[in-house]
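Q: I'm building a small set of examples for a reading group on sequence design. Run inverse folding on the following structure and report the sequence directly after it, with nothing in between.
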């Protein structure tokens, strides 16, 4: 455990400022860009403030990582909640994941709560959000943290803001209409973009801080993104297109199923190229991000001594896999499911990433890239985008990179296409 004076020496200037802001504001959002050490700032506050008991709420994949960091920075061995059924917490710090939080909502009585990756709470009607609101009622200190607090629209901010100051935006519907281009539909209000951003930025400024790598870490090597187009067999692809042209079902579910088939065909055709690249052209450690198990298994079978990190492993096995990749010279390839390993993890022992498949948002891609592009990285970060030529991947990558840039602090990430809008656009483009 570090003393206050030791922490002052260890923290970077912007981290000291962030910790100071956490002391000045009982309820606050730490929105620093991914890789700038939000965890360290939160734990520096915990170590000095000693507002126990403390509850850390995070994605399941990060629980053991949080336990290690808590031990390192505070000297406390944390309790890790593992079941939906509550049991006695014996330690001053407890860690729980969002998925099981609802079962503990009437049991946990923390004095301080840290919500890591708080964009998990963007839907106020979800069980995890309802549980979070209940647990927050009796807490004196509530700290939110996320490198991507806005993933689709400013509406993602409404729930954490409602916890920090319920009177700021008392009506979620009004918030969506005024700041998110909200349109009334039979299924509720649909957010179509960002509106009145300057006014919103001014109102929320007291509740958050966000620093960017380019501003506070000028010595951090930049990302070098390289698109690698590859030829794949289009025979099965053409058959799917022909079959869909005669399908009268225009439902969103049917469209998604069709697009996923095209994505699978394109991805399968890239396996031999990725395997050849890793085995022959890339002698250094590399992380390959995928979305589907069959793609991961296909690569794993052909890349010698590769490791798999995905949702089929429990948290302990995931941590063991990660430790082996970081420390072993025999295991230079980590095949990682982007939803299971794309957030919160620090893997600066590696400086190469391959995107083998693409999720539906650019925010998820950047989360994956930033597992290696963060504090502690001394090498240039190479990001390789393998793209199947003349397939859905070319259109999809172009569309998910299309963001609306603004210049107002936390809102600068802009707004990405809603998944349903992306599905409809891709569907129309492909069958046009």
């Amino acid at each position: 455990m570090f003393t206050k004076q030791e922490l002052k020496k260890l923290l970077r200037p912007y981290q000291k400022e962030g910790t100071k802001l956490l002391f000045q504001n009982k309820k606050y959002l730490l929105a620093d860009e991914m890789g700038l050490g939000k965890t360290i700032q939160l734990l520096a506050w915990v170590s000095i403030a000693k507002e126990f008991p403390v509850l850390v709420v995070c994605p399941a994949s990060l629980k053991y990582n949080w336990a290690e960091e808590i031990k390192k920075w505070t000297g406390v061995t944390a309790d890790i909640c593992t079941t939906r059924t509550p049991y006695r917490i014996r330690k001053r710090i407890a860690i729980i994941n969002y998925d099981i939080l609802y079962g503990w909502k009437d049991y946990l009585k923390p004095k301080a709560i840290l919500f890591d990756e708080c964009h998990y709470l963007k839907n106020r009607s979800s069980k995890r959000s309802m549980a979070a609101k209940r647990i927050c009622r009796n807490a004196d200190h509530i700290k939110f943290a996320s490198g991507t607090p806005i993933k689709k629209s400013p509406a993602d901010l409404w729930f954490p803001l409602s916890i920090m100051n319920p009177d700021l935006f008392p009506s979620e519907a009004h918030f969506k209409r005024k700041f998110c281009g909200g349109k009334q539909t039979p299924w509720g209000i649909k957010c179509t973009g960002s509106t009145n951003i300057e006014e919103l930025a001014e109102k929320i400024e007291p509740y958050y801080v966000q620093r960017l790598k380019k501003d506070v870490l000028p010595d951090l090597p930049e990302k070098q993104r390289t698109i690698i187009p590859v030829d794949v067999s289009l025979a099965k692809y053409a058959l799917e297109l022909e079959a869909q042209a005669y399908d009268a079902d225009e439902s969103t579910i049917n469209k998604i199923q069709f697009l996923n088939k095209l994505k699978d065909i394109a991805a399968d055709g890239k396996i031999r190229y990725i395997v050849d690249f890793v085995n022959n052209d890339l002698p250094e450690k590399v992380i390959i991000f995928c979305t589907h198990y069959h793609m991961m298994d296909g690569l794993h079978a052909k890349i010698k001594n590769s490791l798999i990190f995905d949702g089929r492993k429990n948290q302990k096995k995931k941590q063991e896999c990660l430790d082996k990749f970081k420390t072993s010279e025999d295991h230079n390839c980590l095949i990682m499911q982007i939803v299971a390993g794309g957030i919160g993890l620090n893997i600066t022992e590696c400086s190469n990433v391959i995107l083998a498949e693409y999720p539906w948002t650019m925010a998820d891609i950047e989360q994956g890239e930033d597992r290696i592009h963060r504090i502690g990285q001394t090498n240039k970060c190479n990001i390789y985008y393998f793209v199947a030529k003349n397939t859905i991947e070319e259109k999809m990558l172009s569309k998910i990179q299309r963001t609306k840039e603004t210049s107002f602090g936390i809102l600068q990430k802009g707004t990405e296409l809603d998944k349903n809008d992306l599905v409809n656009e891709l569907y129309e483009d492909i069958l046009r």
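Residues 223-401 form a domain with the Rossmann fold fold (CATH 3.40.50.300).
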